[in-house]
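Project outcomes to date are best conveyed with an example. Our students and postdoctoral researchers have been running inverse folding experiments weekly, and each run begins with a structure described purely in tokens. The record below, which covers 295 residues, was selected by the lab manager from last quarter's runs and is presented without edits.
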């Protein structure tokens, strides 16, 4: 099927390399335990991503590379996850996944769902029993599609790790104009994304100019993509009992990254806490080397 190009090789490749590395390490670490493991991909796509190459710092539309998407990377992991949930709101994507993985040896352990990631993930979190199961959730949206309630549901299982491509630049920073005004449709979307109206105090500052009665006339925008991501890290820290990775990985243009890749884990047992912390650091470090960052 025709696919939307949605990233540069650097950013998208880096994100998927970090997640792929984590999934591999996670499965190896849990291999000798009695837990069944679940991989839940809320925005699964088609399993393939066409990217335009960078040439001399510019996109070259003529040079296309296809890289493996998140669903393919999860299925490549050895040992495999006990169960895989692939969710996408577009039937065409889910059909493409079914065709692509038809002959995969783990095909019988896949559940394909056409639907909204929020509804479906909240349903899975409520329906599954988490005493004998552990897993990893990936939320890789284009924009502000993830609702805070979904994050809360994942955290409440105390059994799932979460990788979240948080659209700090795209859906927070860019939705607030420099004079601090927020479009009437964007304010509720920010509240849904962040789970509180408190963002208004964190991202906007009353301007010094006052009206005749002393009330501030307008606001000043003080949020940056980085501070928005930091805000989400704090929010994640309030609900994930295991912990939140301190490092946030900027993806997109350097000055104003569209996204940050964040990681949080729900299991607070000392062993699980240490493991998630160690594996996430190792996954980031392994891909830092490949993507040329100095570590
Ligand atoms: C950035 S792409 C995901 C790419 C995928 N993770 C990969 O690595 O191949 C976002 C996907 O989310 C889907 N999508 C958009 N809104 C959604 C929603 N509310 N629930 C589920 N899927 C949604 C789109 O159809 C698209 O396939």
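After processing, the design step wrote out the following sequence:
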């Amino acid at each position: 099927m025709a696919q939307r190009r949605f990233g540069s090789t650097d950013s998208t490749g880096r994100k998927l390399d970090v997640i792929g590395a984590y999934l591999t390490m996670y499965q190896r670490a849990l291999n000798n335990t009695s837990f069944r493991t679940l991989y839940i991909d809320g925005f699964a796509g088609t399993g393939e991503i066409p990217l335009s190459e960078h040439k001399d710092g510019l996109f070259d539309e003529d040079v296309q590379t296809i890289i493996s998407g998140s669903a393919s990377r999860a299925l490549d992991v050895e040992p495999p996850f006990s169960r895989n949930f692939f969710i996408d709101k577009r039937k065409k994507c889910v059909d493409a996944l079914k065709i692509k993985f038809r002959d995969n040896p783990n095909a019988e352990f896949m559940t394909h769902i056409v639907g909204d990631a929020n509804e479906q993930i909240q349903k899975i979190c409520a329906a599954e029993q988490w005493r004998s199961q552990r897993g990893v959730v990936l939320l890789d949206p284009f924009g502000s599609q993830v609702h805070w309630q979904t994050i809360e549901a994942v955290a409440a299982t105390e059994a799932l790790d979460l990788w979240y491509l948080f659209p700090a630049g795209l859906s927070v920073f860019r939705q607030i104009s420099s004079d601090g005004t927020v479009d009437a449709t964007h304010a509720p979307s920010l509240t849904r994304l962040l789970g509180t109206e408190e963002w208004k105090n964190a991202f906007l500052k009353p301007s010094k100019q006052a009206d005749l009665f002393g009330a501030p006339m307008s606001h000043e925008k003080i949020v940056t993509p980085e501070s928005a991501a930091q805000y989400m890290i704090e929010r994640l820290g309030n609900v994930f009992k295991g912990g939140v990775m301190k490092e946030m990985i900027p993806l997109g243009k350097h000055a104003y990254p569209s996204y940050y890749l964040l990681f949080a884990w729900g299991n607070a047992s000392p062993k699980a806490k240490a493991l998630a912390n160690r594996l996430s650091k190792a996954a980031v470090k392994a891909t830092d080397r490949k993507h040329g960052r100095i570590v």
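The two ends are 39 Å apart (CA to CA). The longest strand covers residues 58-68. The training component of this project remains on track.
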